[in-house]
Inverse folding.
């Protein structure tokens, strides 16, 4: 049964196909050397863009993580802008806000951002001030520990030293990218995005928001009793009652499942979930391949935690032998489908599952390759004295 808070929240939810995130997430996927999606599209696009874009990207350190936060530079309620509207928003934003929004979108810590914006500390010092609860996030995007030659660090140093020159470079990259390649890519994507949108909206109206968040591969945990959405990284929590509007946008590029929340002057929040749909393809030659929707960096602690539950271990054993969907798993284990979805969510977050859409259902299979690497991963994490040691406890927080 849906709570009153959830019922009220669901009335604020909308489904749209939008350029707002796809433009920037596509650049993230294009420039990230570890990107695992749309290989043919990436190769042909980089070739078509030529040397000018490469030189401009090099001017900002070759950063790829800078692009996902660009959507935050536009007004929060602007859900479906055109390219020219996006460009105008970036072009006319006051310089101080341009710099501040990028820093907030990446660093997520007032303790670090406020003195940095006031010029009281260096970027290196600011990164060192980020609380432990946020360090997993900034480590995930390459900002922690501070490495002066890291692409994301170079980009932020350039942003801080000459904001307007940085902005001019960003705008030029976007103009060339849109004119030479992405306008036609966006046109090709439209039919698949609309199809995905219709399917996800039907799913949304057929189950609880908690169940929907798992089925749609959102990187959040939903506490229906408390009426809260919690980020899986960084400790951010959002109450249903504080949401002014929530948009679900189909994405063919957001395989890392970023999402955004923007507060207005009345402290109300507009939320955007650009949900990744692995069924959308730009590479017909790879359309039959299994879609990998997990993070590239595997964490042995998450893997051991996921397998430490007897039900999840049973699911892993079943999926190691043959692919199954959630309905089939529920029947085999004699448990409810929501219970299976909860456990599948944990296995997915640990990077243990590969998923493929077959006749409208998500088919799951255990990744043998992860287990073949697990011993080396664990040894590296435990015995590599060159890596910083981060100790966390399941109770009592970080130490």
């Amino acid at each position: 049964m849906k709570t009153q808070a959830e019922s009220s929240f669901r009335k604020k939810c909308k489904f749209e196909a939008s350029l707002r995130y796809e433009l920037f997430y596509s650049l993230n996927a294009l420039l990230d050397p570890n990107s695992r999606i749309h290989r043919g599209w990436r190769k042909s696009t980089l070739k078509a863009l030529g040397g000018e874009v490469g030189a401009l990207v090099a001017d900002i350190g070759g950063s790829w993580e800078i692009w996902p936060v660009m959507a935050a530079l536009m007004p929060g309620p602007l859900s479906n802008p055109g390219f020219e509207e996006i460009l105008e928003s970036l072009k006319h934003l006051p310089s101080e806000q341009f710099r501040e929004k990028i820093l907030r979108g990446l660093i997520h810590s007032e303790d670090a951002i406020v003195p940095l914006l006031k010029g009281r500390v260096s970027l290196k010092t600011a990164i060192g001030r980020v609380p432990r609860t946020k360090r997993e996030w900034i480590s995930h995007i390459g900002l922690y520990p501070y490495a002066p030659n890291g692409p994301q660090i170079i980009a932020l140093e350039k942003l801080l030293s000459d904001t307007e020159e940085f902005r001019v470079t960003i705008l030029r990259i976007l103009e060339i990218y849109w004119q030479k390649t992405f306008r036609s890519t966006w046109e090709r994507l439209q039919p698949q995005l609309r199809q995905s949108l219709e399917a996800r909206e039907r799913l949304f109206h057929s189950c609880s928001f908690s169940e929907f968040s798992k089925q749609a591969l959102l990187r959040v945990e939903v506490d229906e009793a408390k009426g809260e959405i919690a980020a899986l990284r960084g400790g951010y929590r959002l109450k249903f009652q504080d949401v002014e509007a929530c948009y679900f946008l189909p994405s063919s590029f957001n395989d890392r499942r970023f999402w955004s929340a923007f507060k207005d002057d009345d402290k109300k929040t507009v939320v955007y979930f650009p949900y990744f749909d692995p069924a959308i393809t730009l590479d017909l030659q790879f359309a039959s391949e299994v879609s990998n929707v997990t993070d590239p960096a595997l964490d042995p602690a998450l893997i051991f935690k996921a397998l430490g539950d007897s039900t999840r271990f049973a699911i892993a054993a079943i999926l190691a032998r043959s692919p199954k969907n959630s309905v089939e798993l529920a029947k085999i284990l004699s448990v409810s489908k929501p219970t299976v979805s909860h456990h599948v969510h944990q296995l997915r977050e640990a990077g243990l599952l590969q998923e493929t859409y077959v006749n409208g259902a998500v088919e799951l299979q255990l990744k043998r390759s992860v287990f073949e690497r697990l011993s080396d991963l664990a040894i590296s994490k435990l015995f590599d004295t060159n890596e910083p040691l981060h100790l966390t406890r399941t109770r009592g927080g970080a130490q």
Summary: Residues 284-296, 392-399 have pLDDT under 50 and may be disordered. The beta strands are 13-15, 220-223, 228-231, 237-239, 243-251, 260-263, 269-276, 353-358, 361-366. The longest helix spans residues 163-204.
